[in-house]
Amino acid sequence: MDMATKIPGALVAVLVGVAGAILLFWVLNKLVEMLPSALETRLKPYAFLLPAIAVIGTLLIYPAITTIYASLLNDDSTVFVGLKNYVRLFGSDTFLSALINNLMWIVIVPATVVVIGLLVAVLTDRMSPTKEKVAKSVIFLPMAISLVGASTIWRFVYAYMPDKNHQIGLINGILVALGGEPQAWLQITTLRFNTILLMVAYIWTQAGFAMVLLSAAIKSVPEDTIEAGRIDGASEVAVFFRIVVPQAWPTVVTVFITVLIGVMKVFDIVYAMTNGNFDTDVIGNAFFNAMYFSGDRGAASAIVVILMIAIVPIMVYQVRQFRAQEQSR
Amino acid sequence: MATKGKLAELSTQVDVASVQKDILPGFLNAATVNGKVYGAPISMNVKSLYWYDKANFSAAGLTVPKTQADLDALITKVKANGKTPLCYGMESGSATGWAGTDWIEDYMLQTNTPEVYDKWVSHDVKFDSPEVRKAFDLYNKTIMTDGNVFGGAKNAASVTFSKAFNPMFEKDPGCYLLKQGNFITSFFPKDVLANLDQRVGVFATPSVNGQNPMEGGGDLAAAFTSNDKNVKKVMNFLVNDPTFGVEIAKSGAALSPHKSFDSANYPNDVTREVVKAAQVASVFRFDASDQMPGAVGSKSFWTGMVDYTSGTKKLDDVLTTIDKSWPTS
């Protein structure tokens, strides 16, 4: 299909979608209005919630329940095996290694993203408007690249050839030009260095996102509070840590948790760069391989359930944090 | 599909004996279930091949090795001259490792009988068995001995299979031999491809046990119905008509599985050499990893080769991990 047919097609789709939604709510509304008025007022909110609940139910809750059930079945979901899949996973070195890697991603990536985002936000805040725009655009740019695209770029950065004349990798190219020996970067497992190299690629894609939100938060810190601090003789560092950061804190937490949830589900970068080889596997990639390479639905479901259980506390924390913010307003 | 009774036996379509006579011994094994033949080969590719740069090879005073002892002598000679004998790359994105499985499959055929190979494919011979260990030991000796592979075998998992041979074609070559299937020529550098016959030589895997088996693959044709006139016509054309495959052969995309096929149809001498190497083979076997369950053949066997070659895991660990990954049902 060419663009000329795609654009009208997309417009029609949008129109039909919106009109359909309006029609649906209108019909539901009419139906409720036909009821006695006491019942009408009580049921009306539910009538409007119904479509949303139906969608979440079929696309989220129902699959979640079947996944939990499938994690208790064998590889083609025909025989009940109890907790065997979980026992097998926690007895496997490769899965435990993936858990350790996920833990590393969780500890390192969100904090680094927030720190870099905050740093860039503060520094660009002190530039002239034009320079600030250019600097921010450049740092935001990787956000526009898909994670697989970013992986391809970073694979070229880390690429390795044994021959000195044929380095196509950026780092090895520089290293050889300076007289060094090329290194197979993604194979360096000492202190899981290769996992950290994968994180660099991910941080590169996420720093822009953090910067934009944190920059907005810093700019909305009331100028008079900062001035009051300066008049009271606070140093720039003190102004930043005691006045700016506390007022931008809700945004910092939001960015941190958003990145944290993204990191827990990390898959694309690992799949496209190492496919979990050399001890770089993570839960997301382990799931994909169990499901689509090994065809083991039981193990794949069990991996996802473990991931789900791990994410729930963070979601709960985020919702609480959100409520607390709403109340303080 | 054959086990579920969905396919018609080949004998209902064509004369099996005449097909059998005209193809490599053992080719029909891949299409035989419980002693009944269901499919006939219509194309072929071969993998037990070594490639070399003719000019560099003769300049170093090397001759084509006929036996493993010859190959060992060649390796010693090259190393004595301060050079590296082999190029090897097993990086292939998320399929990294398959190049390693080809080595093991080749050596499985070379160190064991074809019957043992078949039992290995069906897991009646385990990975952790004396038979498979023989193949791994030979792989270890040839590949993982210090100085045998350009850049070191440890780093082979970071070297892209489609670029690994580049140093072989240099004036001051990084290596003298590359082991790969016949499809690898399409990845050769443009200037090499332009003069393929003048620049590139090829020979079959040097014999280990006096036999010269050939590992490869191919497409099989099978019929769903046993008594449809038109289906029989198509099957006969695909399997017996000497004009079928001519166009495919001319394009160099695939080889004909038939001994009677006119090799003048192939685009160059290198391809004719490859076919000759296949036709003198004592026995033909399909790529084992392609026949194993996906969890092994396109997952744990691949990662096992990566872990073993890169030195991440010891052989015992690699073999038991692969055995454990074999689907139980």
SSE blueprint and pairings:
The complex is a heterodimer of chains A (329) and B (329).
Chain A (H helix, E strand, L loop, with lengths): L2 H31 L3 H34 L13 H7 L2 H33 L3 H12 L6 H12 L11 H8 L15 H27 L3 H9 L4 H29 L3 H6 L9 H11 L3 H32 L1
Helix pairs in contact in A: 1-2, 2-13, 3-13, 4-5, 4-8, 4-10, 5-8, 6-8, 8-10, 9-10, 10-13, 12-13
Chain B lengths: L15 H7 L9 E2 L2 E2 L1 E3 L3 E2 L2 E5 H6 L8 H13 L5 E2 L10 H14 L2 H8 L8 H14 L33 E3 L10 H5 L1 H4 E5 L9 E4 L2 E3 L6 H12 L5 H6 L17 H11 L4 E3 L1 H4 L2 H16 L5 H11 L4
Parallel strand pairs in B: 6-7, 9-11
Antiparallel strand pairs in B: 1-2, 3-10, 4-9, 5-7, 5-8
Describe it for me?
The complex is a heterodimer of chains A (329) and B (329). Chain A is mainly alpha-helical. Chain A has helices at 3-33, 37-70, 84-90, 93-125, 129-140, 147-158, 170-177, 193-219, 223-231, 236-264, 268-273, 283-293, 297-328. Chain A has 2 domains: 3-70; 86-328, Orthogonal Bundle (MetI-like fold), CATH 1.10.3720.10. Chain A contains 13 helices and no strands. In chain A, helix 4 (93-125) runs parallel beside helix 8 (193-219), helix 5 (129-140) packs antiparallel against helix 8 and helix 10 packs antiparallel against helix 13. Helix content of chain B is 40%, strand content 10%. In chain B, the strands form 4 sheets. In chain B, strands 6-7-5-8 form a 4-stranded mixed sheet. Chain B has a 3-stranded mixed sheet with strand order 4-9-11, with helices on both faces. In chain B, helix 4 crosses helix 6 (130-143). Chain B starts with 15 loop residues before the first helix and ends with a helix. The chains are: A mainly alpha (329), B alpha+beta (329). The interface between A and B is medium-sized, with 30 and 33 residues.
